[in-house]
From TrEMBL:
This is ABC transporter related. Residues 4-231 form the ABC transporter domain. Pfam families: ABC_tran. The keyword Nucleotide-binding applies. It comes from Shewanella halifaxensis (strain HAW-EB4). SUPFAM superfamilies: P-loop containing nucleoside triphosphate hydrolases. InterPro entries: AAA+_ATPase (IPR003593), ABC_transporter-like_ATP-bd (IPR003439), ABC_transporter-like_CS (IPR017871), ABC_Transporter_VariousFunc (IPR051782), P-loop_NTPase (IPR027417). GO terms for molecular function: ATP binding; ATP hydrolysis activity. PROSITE patterns: ABC_TRANSPORTER_1 (PS00211), ABC_TRANSPORTER_2 (PS50893).
């Protein structure tokens, strides 16, 4: 059974069509990214999946049930973009309350609240009230809330927006660590982050699902992405084009080049590049197989 199934899913707000005939079938597994420009319909899709709003037309099911069905209690969770905490209750009290709503008895609910708080490294802040938390800490409490009961599916709308780099990294590591048991669908504008975390990327644009990209395809692509420390682009391009099996090389960003080749022997190409750099005393930063997510989506 699919984890998420949407057929012809559309949503209009008045005469604004926010989602148009979206078809999605997703199975449980590695994290899935949802990407798209501002206003593309990502939050609308998340809200439909959570059952916060109803579709104008089309169908949506999670684990074979309609969003909001009692059968889904404790099995799916979400971190909304604008998640807010109750200002009057300390952190552990509110998470304990949410755990009891999922059916935990009072004592187990508190233990579960403390467990999810330690997952986001906030066990020491359990007694604090939301107003004494920083923005990043509040976000981590909301992520902890989404993890109560170890749900099978967790929808995270911009989970690391506003977090400092160290805490954003911790959240990425947490998602990775929990991905064996939980499937995460993550909406974010941070393509580097999604590239590190996700195996599949759904791209929404103006309410249409316009692309579905598998990150694993990169191993089979005839591309290399080369990042140099510093270089003279025209000399580099000329020298690389002289190597065997190179079809093209273009500078796509400052010091970053997309190389297309027609060799089955990817190592031979990499070795040829490394000897060229040694010969010319050029410093490189990275050679990546395939194209970056940004290249896949926007070129
Ligand atoms: N409650 C609403 N009433 C009217 N229009 C809405 C409402 N919610 C969203 N929209 C419109 O629907 C479209 C999709 O909005 P949505 O919030 O789903 O986009 P998004 O991809 O999440 O954007 P962002 O990246 O900026 O968060 C936008 O044009 C938005 O203005």
């Amino acid at each position: 059974m699919s984890l998420i199934n949407c057929k012809g899913l559309s949503k209009s707000y008045g005469n604004k069509q926010a989602l148009k005939q979206v078809d999605i079938t997703l199975d449980a597994g590695r994290p899935i990214a949802l990407v798209g420009p501002n206003g593309a319909g990502k939050t609308t899709l998340f809200s439909l999946l959570c059952g916060y709003i109803t579709p104008t037309s089309g169908e949506v099911s999670l684990l074979g049930h309609k969003p909001g069905s009692p059968e889904l209690l404790g099995r799916i969770a979400s971190l909304p973009q604008d998640a807010a905490l109750d200002p009057n209750l300390d952190v552990v009290t509110q998470l304990t309350f949410f755990a009891t709503l999922q059916g935990y008895a009072k004592k187990e609910a508190k233990a579960e609240a403390l467990r999810v708080l330690s997952l986001v490294d906030l066990a020491d802040s359990a007694q604090q009230k939301p107003k004494s938390l920083s923005h990043g800490m509040s976000k981590r409490v909301s992520i902890a809330q989404a993890l109560i009961g170890s749900p099978e599916l967790v929808l995270l709308d911009e989970p690391t927006a506003g977090l400092d780099p160290a805490n954003a990294k911790k959240i990425r590591e947490l998602v990775k660590a929990l991905s064996d048991k939980t499937t995460f669908v993550i909406s974010s504008h941070n393509l580097d982050e999604l590239e590190k975390l996700c195996d599949q990327v759904l791209y929404l644009e103006q309410g249409l699902l316009s692309q579905s990209v598998s990150m694993n395809e990169s191993q089979h692509e005839d591309y290399l992405t080369l990042t140099m420390q510093q270089c003279e682009p025209s000399s580099l391009i000329e020298a690389v084009l002289d190597l065997a099996d190179i079809t093209s090389i273009e500078e796509r960003q400052s010091n970053q080049f997309l190389i297309k080749h027609n060799s089955e022997e990817i190592y031979a190409i990499e070795m040829a590049l490394l000897s060229l750099f040694k010969q010319r005393n050029w410093q490189y930063k990275a050679i990546l197989k395939g194209r970056t997510l940004e290249e896949k989506l926007f070129s």
